[in-house]
Request: fold
Amino acid sequence: MGVSYIPVARAGELTPGGMKEVDLGGRPVLLAFVEGKYFAFSRQCPHEEADLKSAGQLLGGGKIRCNNHSYCYDLASGECTLPRGAAPLTVLPAEERGEEICIRLEW
Amino acid sequence: MAYDLIVRGGRIVDGSGLPSYVADVGVKDGKIAEVGRLKESAARTLDANGLAVAPGFIDHHTHLDAQMLWDPYGTCEPQHGVTTVVMGNCGLALAPIKNGDEDAIVKSFVRVEAIPRHALEQGVKWNWHSYGEYLDNFEGKVGINVGGLVGHIAVRHNVMGEDAVERKAAGAEVQKMRGLVLEAMEGGALGMSTNRNERHMREDGKPVASRLADDEELFALCDVLGERNAGAIETILGRNKIEHFEFYHELARRTQRPVLWQSLQHRWVEPNLWREQLAAVEPIFKAGYQAYGLSHTVPLVRHFTLKDCQVFDEFPVWKNLMFLPVEVRRQALADPATRAKLRADLADPRPTNFHRRWDILKVEKTARPENQKYNDKSIEELGKLRHQDPLDAFLDLSLEEDLNTIFWNANNGGDWKAMGEILRSPYVLVGTSDAGAHVQFGADFGYGTILLGLWVRERQVMSLEQAVHKLTFHIASIFGLQDRGLLRPGYAADMAIFDPNTVGAHEPEWANDYPAGSKRLVQRADGMHYTVVNGQVIHQDGRMTGDLPGQVLRGPLYRRQRAAA
Reply:
C-alpha cells in the first residue's frame, strides 16, 4: 500500500482555461486549470474514444464537453452529466504541493 | 451465349433458410435466369467449387447517405458481400431539404453520426430538394444498390426551420410534415426513420429535431405509412427497457407496418435484459404485429495488458495502479496488502460497466512459450490450472511475463449461448453496421462476415442457411425490397460468393480516402471471393472492378405509381 505524488506541472505553468498533456504510467492524461482548480483526467472520451485534447472544451463549473457528441463530464467526479448515466470519464486527483502540481495516486 | 454469367459448382445457400445444395447459377440481363445443372455457355464463368453462393447481403442499418455520393461502392460494403444498403436511419437523411436548412442537417450528422464536417461540406452538393430527387443522384452512378428511409429530422426542419429544435409542432405543421413523408414515399423511400434518443444532439448542443416531436406528431407521420400499407418504421427512441414495449406495440398496432427498435444486446452488467426484451416483444408478434429488435454480431472486445489497461478504471485502487510508473505498479501488484485492497475494490457492490467475472475475462496471448498452455483460458480456468485464487493467478501470470500477457474482455456480446439465442430469434434483425457513421471510431462493415465466421463456423450458434437468411431475405421482406434476397429465377442477380471455411472480418484499419483528406477506419474481409451486383462482378478477392451496376431500389408507393402509370 502506498501513496505517490507524481509531479506533472509547475505552479503557474498553466494559464486559466489551459490544458497540458502528461504521460502517467504510459497512459495519456490531460491536466486542466479551471476556475483556480487543477483537474487531471484521461485524454480519451469514454463515449467514443475521442481525443479530449482536441475535442474537449472546458466549461464553467469544473466540467468538460467532448465536442464530438456533446457529452459533458464533471471533472471532479468523472460523472457524465449530459446525458446522465453514460460511462464516466476517468479522473485523477490533482493538487498543488509547493511549487508543483501533482497527481495523487493511492493504492 | 445463353447466359451473361454462370457461377459453376457452388453450394447454393439461397436465402430462404432451406438446406443448401450444389448447383450452377445462370444470369441473364442482370437477373437470375436458372439455378441447376447448366450445360450452356456464358460470356463469363466463375468457378465456385468449394464456395458458398448466397444472395448478396443487405445492410439495412447504414448512414451512407453522404458517403454514397462520393464513394459509389460504399466501401467497405462489397468486400463483405453486401450488395444493397439502406440509408436514412435514426431519423437522419439528407432529404427532403429546402434552401437554407443544409447546415441544420449537417450539424446533426456531424454530431450524432460523427462524420467529419469538412468531409460533408466538400462531399455533399445539395442539388436536390425532395427525397425522390436525392435518390435520383444515384441513378447510374453506384456500384451497389441503394435505398433509403426518409428522416424525421429533415422533414421537421423542412417545415419548421430552426424552430424544429426548439418546440412542439402545431397541427398545421404536422399536416405539412405528413405531406412531405408521403411525397418521399412516392419518390421511392423504403420507409421512415425517427430519433428520440436523449443522447443525440446537434453540433451546437441542441437536441436533434425529431426529439422535440410528441407522440401525436410521431404517430401522425407514421400513420402515412400505415394508411398506404407501405414501408418500414425505423426508430431509435432510447427505450430499451421492458416498460417501453407498450409504445412499440401501439406503433406497430396502429400502423401495421414493421417497426424496428434499437437495440437488443447481451451485456454482462444486465445479463437478462435481452431475454426480457424478447419476452416482451413476443406478444406483439403473437397479436399479429411486427416490432423487430436490431442486434449486432460484433462483440465489444477489449484486448489489454496490465501495462496499458483501462478495463478497471471504475475501481479506484485498480485505476490508480494503472497510472503508476510501470516498475512501481509491478511492485504494488506483487504486494499482498495491495492485493487485498484490489480484491475489496472489486467486491464493492455498486453498479459498474465491468462485469467482475473471472469466467469471462480470459488470457488471449501469453508472452512466454512455457505459458502457452494458458492461452484462451478464462481467468477462472487459469486459477484452477495454477491452483490459485483467480485474482492471484491473473496478477501472477502477468507479473511473470513482465506485464506483457495480453488479456481479452467483452462487456457486450461475449456470452455465446445468449448471442446464439439472440441471433436465432425470428424477432431480431441482424446488423447495426452504422456504415458511413462514426468513421474515425469504428468500422463494422463486417457484421455479416463475422456472423458467418465467428458465430456460424467457430461457435456454431446457427446454420449457414439460417445466417444467410438473416442477412438477405429476412431483411428484403421487412423493407419491401422486391426481387431481392433470394437466389431464385427472376430475382436480381445479386450474389455473395465466399468460402465458409475462411470467411471473416479483419480488425479495422486506417485509410485516408474521405473528402478533404479526412481519415477514417476501414475493414477488410477474408474469404469473400466475389460480390456480384445485378449480374456484374464488382468485387473480386478484395479488389473493386470499377463497374457500376448498382440500382436505386425504390419503395412500394413509387412502384405502385409507376405500375399505374
